[in-house]
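User: Here's a chain of 483 residues. Predict its fold as tokens.
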Amino acid sequence: MVEEQPGRTEDSVDLDSMLDLSTPWSLRAVATLRLTEHIAAGRTTITELAAAAGCDRDALHAVLGHLVARGVFAETAPGRFAVNRAAEQLAQTPFLDLTGIGGRMAHTWGTLLDYVRTGQPAYQQVFGRPFWEDLAAHPRIAADFDALMGPAGHGIPDFDVELSDGWEDVRTIVDVGGGTGAMLASLLRRHPQVRGILVDLPGTAVRAGEVLENFGVARRVAVRGQSFFDPLPAGADLYLLKGVLNDWPDEPTVAILRRCAEAAEAGTNARIAVLGGVSPDESPRSLGIDMLVAGGKTSTLTQFTALARQAGLEVAAARTQASGRFVVECRPAAPPTQQQNYAAERQGKPVTQDPEATRAQALVHGQVCYLQLPAASRERAAAFYQAVFGWQIDAHYPDFAAPGLIGQWVEGRPPAREAGPMIWLAVADMNDTLERVTRHGGEILEPPAPDGPVRTLATIVDPEGNPVGLASHAPPAGHVPPP
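Assistant: Prediction complete.
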């Protein structure tokens, strides 16, 4: 049974307005063309507007006519337009420009079906690179994204992070993935006894100076331009992850949390506070653009607790604070003593171990546990396997993690194209996978063929020259198994 939302009845849902695509795209188009500014400058006829914006006259007239009918702009005479209150508001709304981050986000919604089918972002299919690599390749759009995440997009932050033990003992805070520093600056302004360390990629961190100066806290902040997949500054009292984990699936989430656990000193009062990416178990699920652009997710508290445990952390507190934000606090988990493990074993309870030891004990005798793949270029190999198979790649590219498998790329080892062991990878959709293979620099060695009534096999060669077998438990399209 589907429960109706409070205050909303089935008859009150206007599907026609919800399905409208012409209006939101028309609004973004005229915002990108800055028509409000052109009209305000005295270019009011459709001919003048088309010339100023570099557009086709008739096409632009059709778009403006549609918006006038929706109450945005006014047509004071045939082919002559004026700015009304709605058009003024449109011009004041940020991040609508289709050539900037707003355009990236808007176009990404067109990949929703791929995301729902696979659980993986299809951003690269539209823009040619995974989301974070795309930002690195386009500094202007990356700066636009930083603005979207900072004061320009969300306003000047002025709220506290409510810690279960308070702020009295906090002297140093590391804002992990803190963008250009607006959140950290707000916390330092509220807590004058605290010094901060801002960690974000170099291209973002370099833009933090102006924000920190404007807040008057620049002298109390050290800026580190680095990835949060690299070792973090050690020994701080608080590590803050705000709006970070919701951008990543499970395995990178564990990697980020593990870096925090490594930096925080076990046995001290050090804490890791997480805002975003975790929700109470009873919260309804929601869809966010972070899922589509980067494959991010929001875990329930139960799911997050398991991920934190893999990273060597234990959840110490979780609650919804006065601001409405859900905050989870973690502490480094103390390693169990031999006596504790012995007592647990005697009582039939699970023995606590580090994540690697736990994984090793879960292996079945004879199971492949580690893989080394030859590569002339680790970067190229990483991009191929991430794009085609969704493997999680280490920030520096030598290592990878895939379902049931971890390993690394080894430079200098020749590929075995015609001899040697053969690895086989399960794929959900053979035809889609083969299309990705060729699009990302691989080639099809043996086309798909049935292997029994419900399995299809194919062989490919990755860009490094390694042969890889693909197995799909479905017959190829158009194949009818014999009766």
